């Protein structure tokens, strides 16, 4: 009887396994269409088809794995009472973007934030959260304002049915967003900001870093929705702006975007503005000598209180006066809604990352300034 010793048994087992693997390979469906990039391509086939996968993108590292970050933060002016609306917004922002990139949040308020507010906002993110109180001089009447006159004009605007016409806190808010949020001590360490408000929604996955995009492409101002302002809120804003331009010609570059905000070369304002509840911007721009001079000029004129100048037209007119086309970016890929208007990307390629209804996109409706933007920048 042949005896197989333990040393003889091993080679036999190994051969058997190899034999089975070879059989399996030849019977397998992969055998005839080798996909291994290193395999020798058969004759008559262009080699690069084998080396390059059909969709290169899927083999790229996601952008967030690169740990380089901009010095940037979300900035959210809000009240304690808006906590629940804000949580809804933050959870969407985290899901669409920030759970991957972890940019910090700066919350600002004219009253101290409650512990409840702090716990229930910080709980939604791994990122740093900071809570700041707005100094009195940034949320009140400057000394040159005639308060009696302001009260009278405000009540009148209310009676005339102007939106937020008789609302004082709204005016402090607009003045703060125009001239002060970027000077708050908690903001000083940052170079870029993304403004967020309670209740806004985000519909599209954002897989790259928009702050780095701004920085690397020398963009100073980014937006998603543009529209027409109510003229009754800014009766003298353009006259005041024209006087400013006359007094400070050194701040007005030749090839600016004035045609975006005026249909007659600066004669009158066409009411177009970027909706400032969404902004991604360069803080250096808002802290620049020209923007500072413009804000102070407007503040002295008193229209934040005697009229109801909004931070959106103020920022937008500054963009039109001081920046050129290549410094302003339309974030088409950021699906965004601040009721009642939504920007939803309409191209099929961008829609793949979104859940908004492109049929409800605001861009090409009557009150949007999208067509103007296209005509000026193309
Ligand atoms: N802390 C604080 N935040 C305010 C106050 N008023 C407005 N805000 C914030 O300022 C931003 C703009 O105010 P909103 O009331 O949304 O103004 P709006 O977007 O023009 O108007 P809505 O259509 O009502 O949203 C929001 O982020 C508010 O939370 C206020 O009195 N105190
Ligand atoms: C990470 O991003 C920075 C900034 O965009 C870039 O300079 C750097 O080359 C990137 N690093 C890698 C490994 O891709
Ligand atoms: C003033 O406007 C704010 C919105 O910024 C609103 O929440 C508030 O109810 C308004 N106040 C009054 C007295 O109308
Ligand atoms: C826009 O302005 C920047 C300076 O901030 C300049 O570097 C750039 O060349 C300008 N671009 C155009 C198209 O004028
Ligand atoms: Mg709002």
From TrEMBL:
Q: Which domain of life is it from?
A: Eukaryota
UniProt keyword terms in alphabetical order: Membrane, Transferase, Transmembrane, Transmembrane helix
What molecular function terms (GO) are annotated for this protein?
alpha-1,2-mannosyltransferase activity
Positions of the catalytic residues: 279
For this protein, the record's SUPFAM superfamilies field holds: Nucleotide-diphospho-sugar transferases
User: InterPro entries, alphabetically?
Assistant: Glyco_trans_15, Nucleotide-diphossugar_trans
> PANTHER family from the entry?
ALPHA-1,2 MANNOSYLTRANSFERASE KTR1
- For this entry, the protein name equals Glycosyltransferase family 15 protein
Species the sequence originates in: Phycomyces blakesleeanus (strain ATCC 8743b / DSM 1359 / FGSC 10004 / NBRC 33097 / NRRL 1555)
């Amino acid at each position: 009887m042949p005896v197989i010793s333990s040393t003889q048994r091993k080679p036999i087992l190994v051969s058997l396994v190899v034999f089975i693997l070879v059989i399996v390979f030849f019977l397998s469906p992969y055998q005839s269409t080798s996909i291994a990039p290193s395999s020798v391509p058969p004759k008559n086939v262009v080699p690069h088809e084998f080396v390059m996968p059909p969709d290169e993108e899927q083999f790229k590292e996601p952008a967030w794995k690169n740990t380089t970050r901009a010095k940037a933060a979300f900035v959210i002016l809000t009240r304690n009472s808006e906590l629940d609306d804000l949580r809804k917004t933050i959870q969407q922002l985290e899901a669409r973007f920030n759970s991957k990139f972890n940019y910090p949040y700066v919350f600002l308020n004219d009253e101290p934030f409650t512990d409840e507010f702090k716990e229930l906002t910080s709980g939604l993110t791994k990122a740093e959260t900071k809570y700041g109180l707005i100094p009195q001089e940034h949320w009140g009447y400057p000394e040159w304002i005639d308060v009696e006159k302001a009260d009278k004009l405000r009540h009148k605007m209310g009676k005339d049915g102007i939106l937020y016409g008789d609302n004082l806190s709204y005016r402090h808010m607009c003045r703060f967003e125009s001239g002060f949020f970027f000077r708050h001590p908690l903001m000083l360490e940052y170079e870029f900001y993304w403004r967020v408000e309670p209740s806004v929604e985000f519909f599209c996955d954002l897989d790259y870093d928009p702050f780095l995009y701004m920085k690397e492409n020398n963009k100073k101002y980014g937006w998603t929705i543009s529209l027409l302002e109510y003229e009754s809120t800014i009766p003298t804003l353009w006259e005041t702006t024209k006087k400013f331009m006359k007094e400070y010609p050194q701040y007005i570059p030749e090839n600016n975007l004035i045609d975006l905000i005026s249909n007659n070369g600066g004669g009158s304002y066409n009411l177009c503005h970027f909706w400032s509840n969404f902004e991604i911007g360069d803080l250096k721009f808002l802290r620049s000598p020209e923007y500072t001079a413009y804000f102070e000029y407007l503040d002295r004129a008193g229209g934040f209180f005697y009229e109801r100048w909004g931070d959106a037209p103020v920022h937008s007119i500054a963009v039109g006066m001081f920046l050129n086309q290549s410094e302003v970016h339309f974030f088409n890929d950021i699906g965004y809604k601040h009721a009642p208007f939504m920007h939803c990307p309409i191209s099929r390629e961008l829609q793949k990352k979104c859940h908004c209804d492109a049929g409800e996109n605001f861009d090409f409706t009557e009150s949007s300034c999208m067509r103007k933007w296209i005509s000026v920048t193309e």
